[in-house]
């Protein structure tokens, strides 16, 4: 967008960067979750001697108790990654909010100056 | 579509010659808005293959970025646009509210960009404009501050106030309730401010205002500050410093301890239980000005209540918590989760029995409250043994009515102040001291 001050550009870039990094992390994370869930279900069903789909063609699922093991594993596996993401997200968030504050302040001052000019006119 | 409706309404109020102009502009907007909508939908479906819930809120938060963006450019043109567009817009420009001015400005700016803009890059089109709609703002802020939860917090604080062994003072009560409510709003807003990407990933929370881009993070922080600072000031100056300190401490505990801990260790549940236990203590200290055993007892009851309540709730959300990366007992230590819930249900019985010993209530209280305490303990035991969705739901819903009922019974069994003064107990002395503390 044209007529963007340096400050506003930094804000936009910060937001775009945060957006991109969030997207990257979560896309990868959710994909991994889904994949590992499928693998887990498959391996458990195999251990039980069942197929992925039963006779009627319905997808076989495990009950909540069995899934709980998977959830526990998944959570503990990605601990370090999550902490790192947490740190990054907090940094992004604070920087963006701070920049927003600066931009809002600048705009408010501009608006006040304009108003004064209008009044004088 | 909504925004167009708004412009059209404005148009309808115009005098005929202006109306034509505005309608023309409005139809331009209609085209652009729909075009943008189409693109937004495309963006969502493309991402759907990779992300599930992430997609929609993501595009919304992309959308929110543009709110700042559009505001910023073409500011010089705004002045001219204001004078040329319509009388209604001009009357808006005289209004003091900055928000409305901003809204009008972006209306003007968008028109500019639509009419003058022409071919923008694909990148820009994805930065769709987000409007801060003034009529939505109360609803948005209510959701931001989790108004229902705040109402519950205020009612527990009121219960604490009511249970205090002092004559009831209405102004103090109202000030304490208001201060607690404001502090709670602030804490909840900051919590949502910190948790945007995590909330967007979970079904339960993906419709929160910051996730959907209905307001900017800056506004959330400003709102939190504008609630928290007056709230704590009100408590410190209007009630007493102890209550203010407790309120500030609670906000700190919730935002800076509980929220980060949620992602790091299961200890967050215990911290969260303390956060829930502090409001009644605040109510009590607001009334008496001192922290006595009765306050701690009430706090203890709330503390114990949190466990069956939260553990039962989290049982059904294990998948979401696991994927979202929250460390909750129900996911990592399911056995512990159920044990703790049962343990604290039983603790509630114990605490109810201690109440008359501390002269908070008469001996009728443990007797009357025994049925409901036994019932929740029974459900806690079922949850412990069965560990399935239905028992967790039963326990959760029971906890929702159990607490109000327990507090009500407690209040009706409250030991009368006069009775104690007649007995000439120590509490009478501390009561006078409390009165002194209240006088500035």
UniProtKB/TrEMBL annotation, chain A:
<dbReference type="Pfam" id="PF10231">
    <property type="entry name" value="COA8"/>
</dbReference>
<keyword id="KW-0496">Mitochondrion</keyword>
<keyword id="KW-0999">Mitochondrion inner membrane</keyword>
<dbReference type="GO" id="GO:0097193">
    <property type="term" value="P:intrinsic apoptotic signaling pathway"/>
</dbReference>
<keyword id="KW-0472">Membrane</keyword>
<protein>
    <submittedName>
        <fullName>APOP1 protein</fullName>
    </submittedName>
</protein>
<dbReference type="GO" id="GO:0005743">
    <property type="term" value="C:mitochondrial inner membrane"/>
</dbReference>
<dbReference type="InterPro" id="IPR018796">
    <property type="entry name" value="COA8"/>
</dbReference>
<comment type="similarity">
    <text>Belongs to the COA8 family.</text>
</comment>
<keyword id="KW-0809">Transit peptide</keyword>
From TrEMBL, chain B:
<keyword id="KW-0496">Mitochondrion</keyword>
<keyword id="KW-0812">Transmembrane</keyword>
<dbReference type="GO" id="GO:0008495">
    <property type="term" value="F:protoheme IX farnesyltransferase activity"/>
</dbReference>
<feature type="transmembrane region" description="Helical">
    <location>
        <begin position="363"/>
        <end position="383"/>
    </location>
</feature>
<dbReference type="GO" id="GO:0006784">
    <property type="term" value="P:heme A biosynthetic process"/>
</dbReference>
<keyword id="KW-0808">Transferase</keyword>
<dbReference type="GO" id="GO:0031966">
    <property type="term" value="C:mitochondrial membrane"/>
</dbReference>
<keyword id="KW-0809">Transit peptide</keyword>
<dbReference type="InterPro" id="IPR030470">
    <property type="entry name" value="UbiA_prenylTrfase_CS"/>
</dbReference>
<feature type="transmembrane region" description="Helical">
    <location>
        <begin position="242"/>
        <end position="261"/>
    </location>
</feature>
<dbReference type="InterPro" id="IPR016315">
    <property type="entry name" value="Protohaem_IX_farnesylTrfase_mt"/>
</dbReference>
<comment type="similarity">
    <text>Belongs to the UbiA prenyltransferase family.</text>
</comment>
<feature type="transmembrane region" description="Helical">
    <location>
        <begin position="395"/>
        <end position="412"/>
    </location>
</feature>
<dbReference type="InterPro" id="IPR006369">
    <property type="entry name" value="Protohaem_IX_farnesylTrfase"/>
</dbReference>
<dbReference type="InterPro" id="IPR044878">
    <property type="entry name" value="UbiA_sf"/>
</dbReference>
<dbReference type="InterPro" id="IPR000537">
    <property type="entry name" value="UbiA_prenyltransferase"/>
</dbReference>
<keyword id="KW-1133">Transmembrane helix</keyword>
<keyword id="KW-0472">Membrane</keyword>
<feature type="transmembrane region" description="Helical">
    <location>
        <begin position="268"/>
        <end position="287"/>
    </location>
</feature>
<dbReference type="Pfam" id="PF01040">
    <property type="entry name" value="UbiA"/>
</dbReference>
<dbReference type="GO" id="GO:0017004">
    <property type="term" value="P:cytochrome complex assembly"/>
</dbReference>
<protein>
    <recommendedName>
        <fullName>Protoheme IX farnesyltransferase, mitochondrial</fullName>
        <ecNumber>2.5.1.141</ecNumber>
    </recommendedName>
</protein>
């Amino acid at each position: 967008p044209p007529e963007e001050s340096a400050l506003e550009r930094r804000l936009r870039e910060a937001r775009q960067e945060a957006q991109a990094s969030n997207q990257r992390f979560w896309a990868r994370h959710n994909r991994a979750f889904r994949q590992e869930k499928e693998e887990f279900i498959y391996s458990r069903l195999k251990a039980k001697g069942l197929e992925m789909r039963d006779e009627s063609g319905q997808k076989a699922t495990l009950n909540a108790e069995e899934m709980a093991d998977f959830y526990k594993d998944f959570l503990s596996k990605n601990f370090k990654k999550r902490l790192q993401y947490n740190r990054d997200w907090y940094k992004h968030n604070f920087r963006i909010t701070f920049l927003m504050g600066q931009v809002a302040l600048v705009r408010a001052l501009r608006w006040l100056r304009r108003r004064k000019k209008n009044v004088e006119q | 579509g909504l925004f167009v409706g708004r412009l059209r309404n404005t148009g309808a109020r115009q005098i005929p010659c202006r109306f034509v102009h505005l309608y023309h502009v409005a139809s331009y907007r209609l085209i652009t808005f729909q075009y943008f909508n189409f693109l937004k939908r495309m963006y969502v479906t493309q991402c759907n293959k990779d992300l599930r819930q992430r997609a929609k809120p993501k595009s919304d938060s992309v959308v929110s970025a543009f709110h700042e963006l559009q505001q910023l450019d073409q500011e010089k043109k705004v002045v001219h646009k204001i004078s040329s567009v319509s009388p209604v817009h001009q009357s808006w420009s005289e209004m003091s509210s900055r928000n409305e001015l901003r809204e009008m400005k972006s209306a003007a700016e968008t028109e500019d960009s639509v009419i003058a803009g022409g071919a923008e890059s694909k990148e820009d089109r994805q930065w769709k404009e987000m409007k801060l709609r003034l009529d939505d703002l109360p609803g948005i802020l209510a959701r931001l501050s989790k108004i229902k939860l705040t109402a519950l917090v205020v009612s527990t604080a009121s219960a604490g106030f009511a249970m205090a062994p002092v004559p009831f003072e209405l102004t103090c009560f109202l000030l304490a309730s208001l201060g607690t409510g404001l502090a709670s709003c602030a804490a909840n807003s900051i919590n949502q401010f910190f948790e945007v990407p995590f909330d967007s990933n979970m079904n339960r929370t993906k419709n929160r205002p910051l996730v959907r881009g209905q307001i900017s993070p800056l506004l959330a922080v400003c709102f939190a500050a504008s609630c928290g600072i007056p709230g704590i000031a009100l408590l410190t100056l209007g009630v007493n410093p102890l209550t203010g300190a407790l309120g500030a401490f609670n906000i700190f505990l919730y935002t800076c301890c509980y929220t980060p801990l949620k992602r790091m260790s299961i200890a967050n549940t215990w911290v969260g239980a303390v956060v829930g236990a502090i409001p009644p203590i605040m109510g009590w200290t607001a009334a008496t000005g001192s922290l006595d055993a009765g306050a701690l007892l009430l706090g203890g009851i709330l503390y114990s209540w949190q466990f069956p309540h939260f553990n039962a709730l989290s049982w059904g959300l294990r998948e979401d918590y696991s994927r979202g990366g929250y460390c909750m007992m129900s996911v990592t230590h399911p056995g512990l989760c159920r044990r703790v819930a049962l343990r604290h249900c039983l603790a509630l019985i114990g605490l109810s029995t201690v109440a008359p010993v501390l002269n908070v209530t008469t001996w009728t209280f443990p007797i009357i409250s025994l049925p409901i305490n036994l019932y929740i303990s029974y459900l806690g035991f079922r949850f412990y043994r069965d560990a399935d969705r239905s028992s967790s739901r039963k326990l959760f819903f029971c906890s929702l009515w159990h607490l109000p009922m327990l507090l009500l019974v407690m209040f009706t069994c409250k030991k009368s102040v006069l009775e104690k003064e007649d007995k000439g107990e120590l509490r009478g002395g501390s009561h006078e001291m409390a009165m002194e503390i209240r006088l500035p």
